[in-house]
Design a protein that fits this description.
This protein has 20 helices and twelve strands. The protein is an alpha+beta fold. The protein folds into two domains: 29 residues; 461 residues, Cytochrome p450 (Orthogonal Bundle), CATH 1.10.630. The strands form four sheets. Strands 1-2-8-5-3 form a five-stranded mixed β-sheet. Strands 4-12-9 form a three-stranded antiparallel β-sheet. It is globular. The chain starts with a helix and ends in a 6-residue tail after the last strand. It binds protoporphyrin IX containing FE (HEM) and 2-acetamido-2-deoxy-beta-D-glucopyranose (2 copies). Protoporphyrin IX containing FE binds next to helix 4, helix 6, helix 14, strand 5 and helix 20.
Length: 497
């Protein structure tokens, strides 16, 4: 009996020392961890990061230039402050990869589209022809928005009656319709079956990611391959998109042979990219899916903005005056949207505090790297910037925790300070990333979201439910999700003098 106990203790001792050696040998061991670092115990830290990501990141940001936080399957290395952000974004593509990091965080291969990480044809289109042609595409954005709002948010027949609207879901639907007006055009962008497929698909990305995140590496591939959602979305989307793609292909060929004009739209640009990459034209379906707004992008940003407007109704009047004057002068043009400096500042400030993720500039180390402060980052590590903590650091922003909607307007108008527009990235504003890989979709996003906000500002009054305060954002790991709270809307009552 006694002997057996001894063996058990000996075995436990051996296991403990093996763990200790393993843990000491972990090359990340020298980087300070937030929470317990030992094996098993680190799961407690992961639990805390899951529920209290904001506090964990803030704690690390205050204490260290470089630190690590535990997720279920790995440590993630986080850098603090604008200068480290700058260093991270300057690391060359030979040393780090954004696409590989995204793939590790959301398992794009199984959640977004199987081949898009290796062949990001949509990135080339967004960076090139989409952004170049935004002013030509903008009338479509406006037309779709003007059609979608009255349909999706009908005004009550009784004047002055308030209706409670689930902002997040409603905006998701309108953003999807408006974006797809540009991606696939009429009539498909209004087809309820197509839109349902996209909404379901967007939600499934987070769902599938959450499932795959708790799988050990080897099992992940097997489970990833049997998850039904991407396959179903691809099948449904193919039925709608393939005939259109065939037609574009035909027209491209005809134009090449000197018969007719070359089509000029998103689908055609995607096809041209597949041709450059020597891929089958079927590939465009993946390109369309990968271009579509995910839950943590446009819908989140405009929901934050609407919560802020409803919680600070005193800003409605100055915004209305600006939007109304500019629309009166220019109409709903691309340039009109660029003239709306106050609205632009309002959106930038909303995104400063309601950035879509607490971390940005996410990168995977492709080689061993040593950072300027001497921190050694082994190959394979995920490195990120503490975006939210940077955005709320009083070194960079006066009154950093407060929502000051016209702070960027004031800098731009009174001082001529450059780089303060919604689309501008910087080392202390990495919401859209920064540098070479900064979000190429942000010019499209900024015009789309500002147009939608301008429409709301002109047509509706908004307020929170009686006695409510601005809904708290929900943090899941480092993702920041606006609450699914309803906001009251009514037909606009006052006219601006
Ligand atoms: C509010 C909405 C959005 C936000 C907050 C956002 C944010 C970001 C961020 C943080 C990055 C990484 C940048 C870096 O690490 O330097 C990124 C990359 C990217 N975004 Fe966006 N994005 C948004 C919407 C969109 C949309 C609508 C599109 C497509 C039309 C898009 C296309 C891309 C692409 C293709 C990349 C990868 C760029 C590369 O690989 O170099 N994004 N985005
Ligand atoms: C104007 O610019 C200076 C330096 O460029 C800066 O210190 C100051 O805070 C700015 N003022 C405003 C209102 O942004
Ligand atoms: C800010 O964005 C505008 C619009 O794209 C661009 O013209 C300007 O050069 C940017 N400024 C900085 C400092 O990045």
């Amino acid at each position: 009996m006694e002997d057996k106990t001894q063996y058990i203790f000996a075995l436990l001792g051996l296991l403990a020392s093996l763990y200790f050696i393993y843990w000491k040998a972990d090359p990340l061991y020298n980087i300070p961890a937030i929470g317990p670092s030992a094996p098993i115990l680190s799961y407690l830290g992961a639990y805390r990061y899951y529920y209290h990501g904001r506090q964990v990141l803030r704690e690390g940001y205050r204490k260290y230039k470089v630190f690590r936080v535990p997720m279920l399957d790995r440590w993630v290395v986080v850098v603090s402050g604008a200068d480290m952000n700058e260093e991270l974004r300057k690391l060359p593509d030979t040393h780090v990869s954004l696409a590989q990091a995204v793939n590790e965080f959301i398992h794009s291969k199984y959640t977004v589209a199987p081949d898009i990480t290796d062949h990001p044809i949509h990135t080339a289109v967004i960076r090139g022809p989409l952004t170049r042609n935004l002013n030509l595409l903008f009338p479509d954005v406006v037309d779709e928005m003007k059609t979608a709002f009255p349909e999706v948010m009908p005004l009550p027949t009784h004047d002055g009656e308030w209706v409670a609207i689930s902002v997040r879901n409603t905006m998701a639907y309108i953003v999807s319709r408006v974006s797809n007006r540009v991606f696939v055009g009429l009539p498909l962008c209004r087809d309820p079956k197509f839109l349902d497929t996209l909404v379901e698909y967007a939600l499934s990305v987070s769902k599938a990611r959450d499932i795959l995140n708790v799988m050990p590496g080897r099992v992940r591939g097997i489970v990833g391959n049997v998850l039904p959602w991407v396959k179903r979305a691809t099948r449904h989307a193919s039925v709608c998109i393939q005939p259109m793609a065939q037609e574009r292909l035909q027209r491209l060929q005809n134009a090449g042979d000197g018969h007719g004009d070359k089509p000029h739209d998103y689908l055609t640009w995607l096809i041209e990219e597949t041709q450059k990459a020597k891929l089958s034209p079927d590939f465009v379906v993946q390109g369309i899916l990968a271009s579509n707004p995910l839950p943590f992008t446009q819908r989140a940003i405009i929901t934050h903005a609407l919560f802020n407007l409803a919680a600070h109704t005193q800003y409605m009047q100055p915004l209305r005056e600006e939007v109304e004057d500019i629309i009166k002068e220019h109409g709903w043009t691309y340039n009109a949207i660029n003239e709306m400096w106050k609205l632009d500042s309002f959106m930038r400030e909303s995104q400063r505090l309601g950035v879509n993720s607490g971390v940005s500039l996410i990168r995977k180390a492709l080689l061993d790297i040593t950072l300027s402060d001497g921190t050694y980052i082994p190959k394979g590590t995920l490195i990120v910037a503490a975006a939210f903590a940077t955005h709320t650091d009083k070194t960079y922003y006066e009154n950093a925790e407060a929502f000051v909607p016209f702070r960027f307007y004031d800098m731009r108008a009174e001082n001529g300070t450059l780089g303060m527009q919604f689309v501008n990235t910087s080392k202390d504003y990495p919401a859209f990333g920064h540098g070479k890989h900064a979000c190429p979709g942000r010019f499209f996003v900024a015009h789309e979201l500002k147009a939608m906000m301008a429409y709301i500002i002109l047509h509706y009054d908004v307020k929170l439910e009686d006695g409510a305060s601005r809904p708290e954002d929900v943090w899941v790991w480092h993702d920041i999700i606006p609450a699914n709270t309803k906001v009251l809307f009514r037909k606009r009552q006052s006219k601006v003098e």
